[in-house]
Write a structure and sequence with these properties.
262 residues, Arc Repressor Mutant, subunit A, Rossmann fold, 2 domains
């Protein structure tokens, strides 16, 4: 296979299999890990992807409907990739899930591409679009007032719909987290919707990259004791890890060794 052909195959692998590490790419292409890293570097120089620790993110920003989502998608990409890959282990075929409109949830949706017959409720446009690409899934985009900046839907109609749902697992992110106030949000409507989600869910899984710790935004929607398990990345400080242990919060540190497609 020519270098060009191998690199096209690499891109196609990333499109079809959202969560892959460099060793897995090397095995699939029957080349060394060094060759894969060289190819990833070359493709980054061409503007086709962005390198993150352990892999890469395909550079396909034009699929998103607003610049705000693009900016947030690019922030802490390696951490979000790692969290998505680890949290996806909790999801089995046929599960009933609720996911928010965050970019972390979008990465998580990509990591679920191999699951079948999922029943997913979400208030996020991009999350719904991604999950709906798998025709075996049932994806419900919750109705309400459109917020273009966050690519989300919120409001009383959304909350009334959620009240009628029975949700096995909720996967939520936030804009800030502290032990005093728990998970917080900058947008009041988004926080209120997430409170309703938690009331209707059996389990709450918090997807929070380390940059959010110690930051408090406008309103709280989930006290720490409500969290079933918290997923974060390996840049979380030892001090914060110890504080979580002392508070009795179950948490998972996710290694930044995944690569995900957009």
């Amino acid at each position: 296979m020519t270098t060009y052909g191998r690199r096209q195959s690499l891109l196609e692998l990333l499109r079809k299999q959202p969560v892959l590490r460099v060793p897995e790419l090397a095995t699939a292409l029957d080349v060394s890990e060094g060759t894969v890293r060289n190819d990833l570097n070359a493709l980054e120089q061409q503007g086709l992807l962005v390198r993150v620790h352990g892999g890469a993110v395909l550079n396909q920003q034009d699929q998103f409907q607003n610049n705000s989502f693009v900016r947030r998608y690019q922030q802490n990409a390696a951490a979000k990739l790692a969290i998505a890959r680890e949290a996806a282990v909790l999801v089995s075929d046929g599960d009933s899930l609720l996911m928010d409109a965050s970019t972390t949830a979008y990465y998580f949706a990509k990591a679920l591409s191999e699951r079948r017959r999922l029943r997913v409720m979400t208030n996020g446009f991009e999350v719904a679009r991604e999950l709906a690409q798998n025709s075996s899934n049932t994806v419900i985009l919750i109705g309400g007032v459109v917020n273009n900046e966050s690519s989300s839907v919120t409001g009383l109609l959304s909350e009334h719909i959620i009240e009628e749902l029975h949700i096995q697992k909720a996967f939520l992110s936030c804009s800030g987290f502290s032990l005093e106030r728990g998970m917080t949000e900058v947008h009041l409507a988004e926080a209120q919707l997430k409170r309703k989600v938690i009331e209707s869910s059996q389990q709450l899984f918090a997807l929070i990259d380390s940059s959010k710790f110690g930051k408090e935004d406008l309103t709280s929607f989930a006290r720490p004791e409500k969290i079933t398990c918290l997923f974060t990345d390996n840049k979380l400080s030892p001090d914060w890890s110890e504080r979580l242990r002392q508070a009795g919060i179950e948490f998972t540190i996710c290694e930044e060794e995944a690569s995900l497609v957009k």
